[in-house]
Amino acid sequence: MDLRIIKTPKISEIASPEKGFRALAEHAPKAEAFAEHVADRVRPYAAKLHHARRRIATAGVFALTAWLFIHVMFGPNGMVVYKQKKTEYQVLQKEVENLQKENDSAIDEVKALKEDPKTIEKEAREQLHYAKPGEVIYVAPAPAPQQHPNTNSARK
Length: 156
Description:
Blueprint (H helix, E strand, L loop, with lengths): L16 H35 L1 H22 L4 H37 L1 H11 L29
Helix pairs in contact: 3-4
């Protein structure tokens, strides 16, 4: 068990408002001199900036216009992408039209095969080789395959 006596820290004195005001009054000339020094150093640059404000504004407007043009032309939704998408859309429209025509012709063919007796007869004669009573069907033999020479000289 430790029974040492701990010294308490000294209580600091609270500064009075008079001391603070005196310190401010003593340092005021130094602060004014420093502010004057900074103002003297900045004043020529401020004057140049004031005289060049139209040029700076013109340059800013030009930079903004250039950025806007580049963004509109080449941005994620720019004119280049728009042209590509428009071309792709037109190609897909033509493909849809062709598929629609093909679909319509297939629907017409199915309808004819279900309802039109002449179409049914035509398909039965061509694919199933059906014939009416008393008819004779002549079928041409398949063409013979061409034989290529087996020598290497013919291949050159």
